[in-house]
Amino acid sequence: MDPGEVSDELFDQLVDEAVAQLPSGIGDFMDNVALFIEDDSPPDGPTLLGVYDGIPLTERGGTSLSFVPPDTITLFKNPLIDYAEDADHLREEILVTIVHEIAHHYGIEEERLHELGWG
Predict the structure, then answer these.
(1) The pTM is what?
(2) Under 8 Å between Cβ of 18 and 94
(3) What is the pLDDT of residues 30-52, one digit of tens each?
(4) Domain count within the chain
(5) Residue 37 covered by a domain
(6) Among 28-32, 80-84, 102-106, the range of highest mean pLDDT
(7) What whole-number distance in Å separates Cα of residue 108 and Cα of residue 119?
(8) Residue 99 domain-assigned?
(9) Surface-to-core class of residue 72, CB atoms within 10 Å of its CB (0-12 exposed, 13-18 middle, 19+ buried)
């Protein structure tokens, strides 16, 4: 797909639809996690569809996280659009990317995500 074919409004709608389709229970332990959309992934690294930034639940232990900024999941709009074949495929890839980044919040590593089909 061409990024010019997908307006910001349509992309936001597809993100909302993907969030509504998240598997049941996936958000049960997602306090203090914010979802952002950026046009492009950082230019100094590989092209990414999304990224999780935060402290995975598996690394938090019993420590208090008061005054800690929220964990973030960032979707990269243009790489997602470039990767998608059409609007339905874009919606699916947005969902896969959100689930993938949420899994990182839960402490699931890249290799295991690929084994599970969420790579």
Answers:
(1) 0.87
(2) yes
(3) 778 899 999 999 999 999 999 99
(4) 1
(5) yes
(6) 80-84
(7) 11
(8) yes
(9) middle
